[in-house]
Amino acid sequence: MTLVEVVVALAIFLFGVVALLNFFPLKVRTGADASILTEAVFLAQQKAQEVRRDNAPDSLFFVWMRGLTDPAPAGGIPFPQNPDLRYAFCGRSVLDPFDSPGVPEDDFSVPRIIILSPTQARSPSGVVYELRFEN
After folding, report:
1. pTM, whole model, 2 decimals?
2. Greater model confidence, 28 or 42
3. Dihedral (C-alpha) 22, 25, 27, 29: value to the nearest 10 degrees?
């Protein structure tokens, strides 16, 4: 093996190592985002079941929630399990604020639990997850 072959092989090897190192931070960030999203989904479902358990479908709480146009309380309430994640209630979609005909996800006057995180947000509004639920 000549010196030229060694240099070429080393250059190819280093190119591959540099390419892998460039993808490493992306993989770590993607893994952290997936972990936060998984926890947000679980906590939203848990809060929805708690709300359903404690309130009748025609209670004032559901009427209040359906009428909200912005998440309330503002800034959200921290979860005891993870203080970085907060929840709020809303009657409109925060992720899709326009009511499109035939699309049930963005319907107005439907209770929603909004999961917020000032540090882990995937959107500018701080919303990590939005759970639309019927009573």
Report:
1. 0.75
2. 42
3. -150
